[in-house]
Amino acid sequence: MPYKILKSFLIPLLMFIFRPKVTGLRHVPSNGPVIIASNHLSFSDSIFMPLVVPRNVTFLAKSEYFTSPGLKGFIKKITFIALGQVPIDRSGGKRSEAAIMTGLRLLRENHCVGIYPEGTRSPDGRLYKGRTGIARMAIESGAPVIPVAMFNTAEIQPTGQVVPKVRRVEMVFGEPMYFSGDSSDQAVLRSATNELMEKIAELSKQEYVPNMYASDAKDAIKKSLKEKIDFEEDDA
Known about the structure:
Largest sheet: 7 strands, mixed
Number of strands: 9
Structural class: alpha/beta
Strand order of the largest sheet: 1-8-7-2-5-3-4
Strand content: 15-25%
């Protein structure tokens, strides 16, 4: 009910202010299990995309979105709860396994599940190596995967900015992709994930970095900035 109320309120506002241009929405099946796999440029991706999809989209959202401190954290929390998002811990090991099992349960219940294969937002606009959990869910559930490309959301709401800028948002939904094979074979999972990421790169026109995760790219950027600051302080 909160999802429907929020969606009915936000759709007219979204249409009026951000004038979304949506292509290929017909590829999203009207019923049955389906995985929507999108590139991830901004927090607002999780707002814009679910609002244009006729079905309820349940994102496997990182648990930090539900536990962030302060007013911004509170707004994030109630927004994600209202949108029916499911918090998951993606820190690895048994916790990542629990996240995959949650996704499989939702797919067995014929939900439309949203996933960002990169695992986190791109730090520089490029598309990074995908995590293989999405391939495992697709193979074990038999659900189709709809690749999605988001455009302009990083400009609309850059990282750290609460109030979005007014720009036109664009979304492209690709044709369904089906994956099969041995879900316990990492080579199979990696091949399927790479195929999906290549399709997202084709749709989004982003530079694709297949040999690095977005989280590692973030760490490298932070390290570089710290080294630059330390150098400038030493030089001063």
